[in-house]
Amino acid sequence: MHTPQSNGGRGRFRPPPAGRQSALATHGIPEPQMPINDAARRAESRRIALSSFVGSAIEFYDFLLYGAAASLVFNELFFTDLNALAGTIAAFGTLAVGYVARPLGGIVFGHFGDRVGRKSMLVLTMTLMALASFAIGLLPTYDTVGIWAPALLVACRLVQGIAVGGEWGGAALMAMEHASTERRGLMASFANMGGPAGAVLATAVFAGFSALPEDDFLAWGWRVPFLLSLLLMAIGLFIRLKVTESPVFAEAQRRAAQETAGQEAPLVTVLRRYRKNIVLSCLGGCAALVLQSLLATFMLTYATGAGFERSTVLLAQTVSSALHIFTIPAFAMLSDRVGRRPVMITGALVTAAAAFPLFALVNSGSVVLLFVAYLIGNPILQASMYGPMAAFVSEMFGTRARYTGASLGYQLASTLGAGTAPLIASSLLAGAGGGTHSATVSLYLIGVCLVSAAAIALTRESHRADLTDAAPQTPLPDRSLSPSAPTT
């Protein structure tokens, strides 16, 4: 626990009152570490937001690095007995495995995050992710161990999926629960900013090593970006171990400790009280995550098939992802002003309208138009849906089950959307004859966008909702299934 003395006498934090301290200590609950004034509180909020951003960027570096490797390497090294298109589909299949595992990670880490605390789970997920990525960098290829090569690759991808499944919810909640009401969307978006930041880092590192001679790149160059995960883990843990626990969570746990009735498991609470919210958050988030996955993975293969150099496509992706880091919080700030729903619904509908033009730009064969496609797709279309998404999903659940509920809703959207998008798009392209016959892929994107817009329209606006649990959680039959802000 931070005290004025433990902070070098600066008096930045004050300990909780004696009665609260003893109640928490009795039940092993994290102490709320409260800044003594507004300036200190804002400084702490900024520090938590930075921690969420850096931690998520490192996690997503590891997770998205796999996507680049699946597009350009794994089909040749781990599925060498298949033709080029079949090998690509198989590689994207292993990519999807990680997304399938993400809801499991959300449930497991969400449970303990709602019971033990957000901070400890974030430390654990980062460690697990780094070890899985490091292991990928050491894997033997198909030519060395045969079928064991793709089997081990899938096992590592499963661990990656479980780790990132627990990461997002904790990172978003830590930032959001430290923020004031009028800045929740912006603060929560720092976790989502980690996605493109990790993509920039992963793409830049992978592109650097892909510039090696082809034989060297396939022999050892592709492994180095995965091996660097241990170094990034050390940096991330140094930052994360310094953050304080969420005050909203600590306050909810303080009240729970004073209740005589037993507390049900967070997953039970989510499934009993928030079933409709889970469905709506999953469907509402699909469009943003499908577009993200198509641009980050499928488009690499598609654009190179259209005649672009691999390095050119990677550069376009890197530049658009770098801008994406800044447009995500911009749209999140807009949602703090006008609401989550208007921003996200508009983004989904505009994306649907742009589906055919985006692929037409890539099919043009022009490098300039390729960059235009990426600059429209990532920093504008995807960010308009993704920027408000962390707060949109998190505000649907009460504090005692928020880690579990938000993680499950978001990770189901990731599995249904991002996890399957490259596989579906590649299969649709193959069914249409391959090459640049992208009409069916565009129709697929349009359909997902319309479903997401409809799901978001069915929710209630929550950007001004109170996150604090005002009373013990009890069944609310009239409202338990409504897509409202939490009233717990």
Describe the structure.
The structure is a single chain. The chain is mainly alpha-helical. The protein is 75% helix and 1% strand. The chain is built from 21 helices and 2 strands. The protein has a two-stranded antiparallel ribbon with strand order 1-2. Helix 16 (340-363) packs antiparallel against helix 17 (367-386). The longest helix has 35 residues, at 38-72. The protein is globular and about 65 Å long. Mean pLDDT is 82; it is low at 1-35 and 470-488.
List the helices and strands and how they pair.
Layout: E1 13-14, H1 18-27, E2 34-35, H2 38-72, H3 74-77, H4 84-115, H5 118-136, H6 142-145, H7 148-177, H8 184-210, H9 214-221, H10 223-227, H11 229-240, H12 247-257, H13 266-273, H14 275-305, H15 310-338, H16 340-363, H17 367-386, H18 389-394, H19 399-419, H20 421-431, H21 439-457
Antiparallel strand pairs: 1-2
